[in-house]
Design a protein that fits this description.
The complex is a heterodimer. Chain A is 56% helix and 11% strand. Chain A is α/β, with parallel strands linked by helices. Chain A folds into 3 domains: 119 residues, Response regulator (Rossmann fold, 3-Layer(aba) Sandwich); 43 residues; 57 residues, Orthogonal Bundle (Arc Repressor Mutant, subunit A), CATH 1.10.10.60. The longest helix of chain A has 19 residues. The chains are: A alpha/beta, B alpha+beta.
């Protein structure tokens, strides 16, 4: 999980980093004090979640979200603000901002919002740095073939150790984790990009053939991918 | 020969007329007095209204929720990060800031009190923005003993943050100076925030500045001035008012 925090107060960046590290120690957190720094960071690497202050100097928080979204369409946003001002509400809904956090930051409110994000997006949370790394690789290489051996090699441990450690921490084996990850990915693609055809979705989610994709999808979800798209279309958050 | 009837009518008129005139004269003077009373009453009411207004403006000097919540957030941060001493110092500054706000105010306060209040505010902002915020204060010793309406300087400084510095990325610079020119005192607050709409319209449209202008007019008999300009890439707010040293009205016998 890579997190971007943007706020013009250094102290606030420190506080949010501290609070999140306390609860999710293996997450990578990047901080920016203004929009231009944030955009630079976004060009250097992909983020999962961004916490953005609405009152930023220069480009406003909402304008920044608009630009970041162009760079990284899959990025999720939480806005922070010093007090509730609903004149922003309309625009933030339009931009698909997921949640908002009111300052002063209350620890349980922050945890709850992030927890909700994790649940809504079925985001997998690792406990150790090793497994976190593995999850990042799976996310990055989702459309490619991933083997236990290649995973173990990239994190410099033996395949048996990795396999055991992964099952212990995540409660599932690596192959079945990867499979459900691909299915989740396919579900997102189906709804988010209605213009993509089935073979493209299959390819991007890492299935070698459309036939294999349709069969596996049906096994997991009980319906075919096209039926799924038909039923759920227009309901993507 | 005139008839008896006609004669009696003439007699009646010559008696009634003076009586009627007399009554009218008495009534008139009554009316006049009534009018003067009404006029005085009117003046009193309008004076009272002005006083009320000036009190209202002062009461209206409420703390901006944006500032309050940001401050609480900064202090909470300091606590969470284990910077106990800094958090206590910030709480002290906030307490003093609030104390000044909730105290019953005279129409005029000593400049040093207003300066202390502004310094508490600036100390809190320094906690929030850290080294990015640069504060410069210059006080002319010949001007420092003047009185001024409370919140005068504070309004200008708050405006500098709200409309300028909080919208400026990178270094934020605020420069405050108080000078004396003969019988006048000049307070200038400059910030390096971006150019903003308010500057373009003269007279300034901000509610805070409008209130301040009104208060200066109510407080001083002599001319006062409030201007807001953009000069050399800085936003510059200036107030001019008559130098008013503190006068001890009653010296109690000791």
């Amino acid at each position: 999980m890579k997190l971007l925090i943007v706020d013009d107060e250094p102290l606030e960046l420190e506080q949010l980093t501290h609070l999140i590290k306390q609860k999710w120690p293996v997450w990578e957190i990047y901080c920016a004090e203004d929009s231009s720094h944030a955009l630079k960071l976004s060009r250097e690497g992909k983020f999962t979640l961004a916490l953005i202050d609405i009152h930023l100097p220069g480009l406003s928080g909402l304008d920044l979200i608009e630009l970041l979204k162009k760079d990284q369409p899959d990025l999720h946003f939480i806005i922070t603000t010093a007090y509730q001002n609903f004149s922003y509400a309309q625009k933030s809904i339009k931009l698909g901002v997921m949640d908002y956090l009111v300052k002063p930051i209350i620890e349980c409110e922050l945890t709850e919002i992030i927890q909700r994000f994790i649940e809504n997006h079925r985001y997998s949370v690792a406990k150790s740095r090793l497994i976190e790394q593995v999850l990042n690789i799976i996310d990055k290489d989702c459309s490619l073939r991933i083997s236990l051996e290649s995973l173990a090699e990239s994190v410099h441990v033996s395949p048996t150790y990795l396999s055991r450690k992964f099952s212990e921490e995540m409660g599932v084996s690596i192959p079945s984790f990867i499979m459900s990850y691909r299915i989740e990915k396919a579900k997102n693609l189906l709804l988010k990009y209605p213009e993509y055809n089935m073979s493209l979705v299959a390819e991007l989610a890492g299935f070698h053939s459309q036939h294999y994709f349709t069969n596996t999808f049906k096994k997991y979800e009980g319906i075919t991918p096209s039926k799924y798209r038909e039923l759920k279309s227009g309901k993507y958050d | 020969m005139i008839s008896y009837d006609f004669f009696s009518i003439i007699i009646m008129i010559s008696i009634l007329f003076p009586v009627a005139s007399f009554v009218v004269i008495i009534l008139l003077s009554f009316l006049e007095r009534e009018v003067t009373i009404l006029e005085i009453e009117n003046k009193r009411v309008s004076l009272e209204r002005e006083l009320q207004q000036s009190k209202f403006i002062q009461l209206n000097q409420q703390i901006q929720p944006h500032f309050l919540f940001n401050t609480l957030n900064a202090i909470t941060s300091l606590g969470r990060l284990g910077r106990l001493e800094d958090s206590v110092r910030s709480l002290e500054s906030l307490s003093l800031f609030l104390r000044y706000n909730y105290l019953e105010k005279e129409p005029l306060v000593h400049f040093s009190k207003e300066l202390q209040h502004t310094e508490n505010y600036l100390r809190i902002q320094q906690t929030r923005f850290g080294e990015k915020l640069k504060i410069e204060i210059q006080i002319d010793p010949y001007a420092k003993d003047t009185l001024l309406p409370p919140y005068t300087m504070q309004t200008l400084v708050e405006n500098a943050f709200k409309h300028g510095l909080e919208k400026k990325s990178g270094d934020k610079v605020i420069h405050i100076s108080l000078q004396r020119q003969g019988n006048w005192v000049i307070l200038v607050v400059k910030d390096n925030g971006p150019d903003y709409e308010l500057v373009k319209s003269t007279p300034p449209v901000g509610v805070g500045l409008k209130n301040l202008k009104k208060r200066l007019e109510i407080t001083f008999d002599m001319q006062t001035k409030l201007t807001l300009e953009r000069k050399d890439g800085l936003t510059e707010a200036m107030i001019v008012w008559p130098y008013t040293p503190e006068v001890e009205y009653e010296t109690p016998n000791r």
